[in-house]
């Protein structure tokens, strides 16, 4: 059997893998630097995403690696607990994902409210933008999301008085400008991925002009690997750390499976097997944890580039991992030339794409309740933390669903003589008791009432008891007893 017959799409997959590699390279490095870890660890996660997750079943064309969505959470964890604990958290996250996938729970992540997930990502995006504007201005970012936003005016004032900041600001702004304008350039130019072009141009400018800007610190691939020691797992016994593990698992899994659904809409190939995809993500995160690297998720930017470049099988994503490995092994010194303001500019642009402004406007017109959940979740993530923000969003989503599920219609027919007829339809739950009792108590006390409950789909215990008590009070006033047509079932 000849090679072309064994690998009929090798040419397309090889070309696509090179495109994905060029997209992934600056993003892997940028996410690592923004997360407060050695740049090489971002490459390690990208390599594992290609060589481990890429080989497993799940989503054929989806590409995994370090993602901007977890940057804020990783930075706070590394800052507060250290790099060894990051490895323990990522490893535990991977094992949880493996268990969830093996139990067939992968598809249930699709049941998470889209507004909550988008609100979570929007909150991350806003914190990411605020945080990365500091290295763009050659400054150090504060710890909390609110402090990052509140401190931006002072950063601009300090930058205007600094000798180094103007060059840093120029590189960062130039990088963002290239990313925004790249899609308007001729197709022949756009064969080079925008992130690579932006970082490449910034690196060339910084080197040629000898600009006084911070660059990536290079440690070497093997030197950067820090497998978590056993004592690091003891740190996970606290409630806050368990919450962090849950947050990592929820965000990494939900983002990966939502990305898979989006990628499925981009091509006509095999559909995603959600449980297998969750197992693949878990295997990747387990290996990343063992190596002390960044957590991974499926990344929509790389996945879209893979599909648009003509990939046909999972060979493209595996090969992209091979190219990342070769670069990390043979050319790591090139990382030392990359300006940090340029990487920060890439992440500011990535953070902006996480904020669904256009969708929020449309959502507000069609489903204002969902838009409110999105906004409240995003603000909570910024003000409090990732985990608590998501919990607030989920709680609001449950309350909204319960409120809508308890829709109750009350129709009163009063012909001026004879009994007043009251018809109830829908779902009578305790959430609607104030409205229901208010309407019934407003009925004339000296008129008989016929209460028709046959249109109710559900009548909970609280409403049943309240209706019985109201009927007793109404009848006690000397009026003819209330006649009740019972609910169905």
TrEMBL record:
<feature type="transmembrane region" description="Helical">
    <location>
        <begin position="371"/>
        <end position="399"/>
    </location>
</feature>
<dbReference type="InterPro" id="IPR011547">
    <property type="entry name" value="SLC26A/SulP_dom"/>
</dbReference>
<dbReference type="Pfam" id="PF13466">
    <property type="entry name" value="STAS_2"/>
</dbReference>
<dbReference type="InterPro" id="IPR001902">
    <property type="entry name" value="SLC26A/SulP_fam"/>
</dbReference>
<protein>
    <submittedName>
        <fullName>SulP family inorganic anion transporter</fullName>
    </submittedName>
</protein>
<dbReference type="Pfam" id="PF00916">
    <property type="entry name" value="Sulfate_transp"/>
</dbReference>
<keyword id="KW-0812">Transmembrane</keyword>
<feature type="transmembrane region" description="Helical">
    <location>
        <begin position="236"/>
        <end position="263"/>
    </location>
</feature>
<feature type="transmembrane region" description="Helical">
    <location>
        <begin position="112"/>
        <end position="134"/>
    </location>
</feature>
<feature type="transmembrane region" description="Helical">
    <location>
        <begin position="83"/>
        <end position="105"/>
    </location>
</feature>
<feature type="domain" description="MlaB-like STAS">
    <location>
        <begin position="422"/>
        <end position="477"/>
    </location>
</feature>
<feature type="transmembrane region" description="Helical">
    <location>
        <begin position="165"/>
        <end position="182"/>
    </location>
</feature>
<feature type="transmembrane region" description="Helical">
    <location>
        <begin position="322"/>
        <end position="351"/>
    </location>
</feature>
<feature type="domain" description="SLC26A/SulP transporter">
    <location>
        <begin position="10"/>
        <end position="377"/>
    </location>
</feature>
<keyword id="KW-0472">Membrane</keyword>
<dbReference type="InterPro" id="IPR058548">
    <property type="entry name" value="MlaB-like_STAS"/>
</dbReference>
<keyword id="KW-1133">Transmembrane helix</keyword>
<feature type="transmembrane region" description="Helical">
    <location>
        <begin position="194"/>
        <end position="216"/>
    </location>
</feature>
